[in-house]
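Severity: low
Component: inverse-folding endpoint
Summary: output formatting inconsistent between runs
Steps to reproduce: submit the following structure tokens with default settings.
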């Protein structure tokens, strides 16, 4: 669309400016045809309402819908972080406190990372909330989740173990 430069209208050129805006140079010229009248000639004349349609069967009865429940959520409530941590610890034959120790023993780190992974997958908690529960930083939680995801894609034994833990937690598809 072409834009013509608009100057500040003064009382002298206001009419000319209005004429220019109402009839831009690339507008369709007025052919003097009344489109409403031209279209009305081609329309069929409709007199009165349309004829009633005969139906041989009786109309269907519409049953009353049940009252909606107050809880309309589709998803089940998410389990608590404490519950997930305790169940993962129980799966590995440990207590929750043993799993939460701040030691960096590789077997313990793996189990804690699995718990972090399922905390993120099965709850709607944020990374900082999960990190607070484990006494770690949110970047540590993010690293643990990514590490488990990468191992699941590359190591069949790790994937099998994660799936077993997922079945034990009642999560059928961890990813």
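Observed output (run 2 of 3):
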């Amino acid at each position: 669309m072409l834009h013509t430069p608009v100057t500040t209208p003064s009382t002298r050129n206001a009419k000319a400016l209005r004429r220019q805006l109402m009839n831009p140079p690339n507008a369709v010229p007025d052919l003097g045809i009344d489109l409403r009248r031209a279209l009305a000639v081609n329309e069929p004349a409709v007199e009165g309402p349309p004829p009633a349609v005969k139906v041989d069967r009786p109309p269907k009865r519409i049953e009353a819908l049940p009252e909606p429940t107050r809880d309309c959520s589709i998803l089940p409530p998410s389990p608590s972080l404490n519950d997930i941590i305790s169940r993962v610890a129980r799966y590995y034959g440990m207590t929750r406190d043993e799993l939460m120790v701040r030691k960096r023993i590789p077997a313990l780190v793996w189990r804690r990372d699995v718990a972090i992974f399922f905390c993120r997958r099965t709850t709607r908690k944020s990374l900082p909330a999960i990190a607070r529960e484990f006494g770690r930083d949110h970047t540590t939680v993010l690293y643990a989740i990514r590490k488990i995801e990468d191992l699941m894609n590359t190591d069949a034994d790790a994937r099998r173990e994660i799936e077993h833990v997922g079945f034990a937690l009642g999560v059928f598809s961890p990813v």
